[in-house]
Amino acid sequence: PTTDYAPAVVVGSGYGAAVAALRLGQAGVRTVVVEMGRLWDTAGADGKVFPSTGAPDQRSMWFRNRTEAPLATFLWLDVVNRDITPYPGVLDRVDFGDMSVYVGRGVGGGSLVNGGMAPTPRRSYFSEVLPEVDADEMYGTYFPRARQMLGVNDIDPAWFESTEWYRFARISRKHARNTGLRTTFVPNVYDFGYMKREAAGQVPRSALAGEVIYGNNHGKRSLDKSYLAAALGTGNVTVETLQRVVAVRRDTDGRYVLTLRGIDLAGRVVGIRELACNRLFLGAGSLGTTEILLRARETGALPDLSPAVGTGWGPNGNVMTARANHLWDTVGARQATMPALGIDDWDNAANPVFAEIAPLPMGIEHWVSMYLAITKNPERGTFTYDPATDSARLNWHISQNQPAVAAAGQLFDRINRCNVTIYRYDLFGDNKPFADTFTYHPLGGCVLGRATDLYGRAKGYPGLYVVDGSLVPGSLGVNPFVTITALAERTMDRILAEDGPADRTR
Ligand code: FDA
Description:
- Its cofactor is FAD.
- Pathway: Steroid metabolism; cholesterol degradation.
- This is Cholesterol oxidase.
- Its EC number is 1.1.3.6, 5.3.3.1.
- By secondary structure, this protein is α+β, with helices and mostly antiparallel strands.
- β15 and β16 form a beta hairpin.
- α1 runs parallel beside α7 and α1 runs parallel beside α10.
- The chain is globular and about 70 Å long.
- The two termini are about 20 Å apart.
- Dihydroflavine-adenine dinucleotide binds next to α1, β4, β7, α8 and α10.
């Protein structure tokens, strides 16, 4: 294969990658971003970039014959699963036996598909999770910077109280209050001002038209509109799409050489090439980055990588559950897709839980209150390299999610007792009131301070950096992208100040 060269290469285009690309570009470093998904900027035959959740098509999922919406029998019921043509769609579900991991694919990574919730973790818990990271610096500089760059905004409380679109959240709040629990607004990167105009019928609807998980056609400040737009604006950054990194090695000059497999929109391999660089920034996400490094270590391409690569993975304690309300507690046929409120019982030392009040936008009254609970589950998974498939396998047993189920159960048992309500058993299969076999929040695999130094520098390999969610040791207590972004800002500040110019050879 021919070998191209760039001073710096960023793998992936999610949160960590986008921060790296912008800060490298601003520092004048010519940077190539390689992303396995496509660029989502062109409208399809229906005039829209992303498919509607109610009528998913090939754009919705990554090379599937059928869509696999979470809880598809009921949640997002508009999203009845459909047969589709395999295509590089925007949402992927990576199945590892007892654990399935949802991830975004495309320029912008998870920001294209996620619920936009942008909380900052409790400072005390952040310090428990990452004790060696200077919390003053994080809370004084990097969290505020991340929030500002991402366009985090708060819902107007008066509008929240009055709009039919958040009735479902107000009902859940009432039941939390009856239980003596506290709720808190959750900031978001969806533009709440835009949402208000949607409600007023002034602009095309997105969050109020059931859009989320397969992309939002309007309103959401995904990374392609924030960090990545700014990165391209520096003139030093280019993005190459439909290019998957399948190997990395080091040449005799000490440069990193990536093997890239290019595909077309039908998934046919259209080219294998090599791309060399002096500085390699891995932002392929918890699964992607861990797989790249684990493969490199196990195949002997980068044999001195830390034994900690592939360890310390967790699903951020994610568990979903649902309650059935009394007939008088209607949740409304109209529900915004962006959650805006959470039950915050994280300070309950005996049973910390942060439970987001999730919509169930079915277009009809269903009396269901839905939640995504984030719990403090100490269990961790590890990855092993499988040479037969050349991929990373997650070792995670269903029993490892028991602490999360138990914690969510304690909280929602209380809520049910105080409100004389019951769980819904029909939503998650197997007559189970808790969904404990998938996560939206994969974290860890190349943990900060273990597989890397305290700034994401891969141990044993100068010029090789990790910048994404794989650095976070399995748990954060809140949704992760603001923290991933802030840690990447911290890393890039340090690397650009200390590690010298990237362009040794030009
Ligand atoms: P991220 O996963 O964003 O990006 C990795 C990128 O690398 C992807 O674009 C991928 O295609 C690419 N890639 C992977 N392997 C590659 C390879 N070998 N070669 C080239 N490219 C490769 N979080 C939150 O804070 N608030 C929320 O409301 C939600 N809601 C939510 C809903 C849903 C449905 C999902 C799936 C996820 C969320 N999340 C969330 C989680 C959040 O989106 C997630 O934590 C971040 O996107 C992770 O950011 P990273 O930078 O780690 O990687």
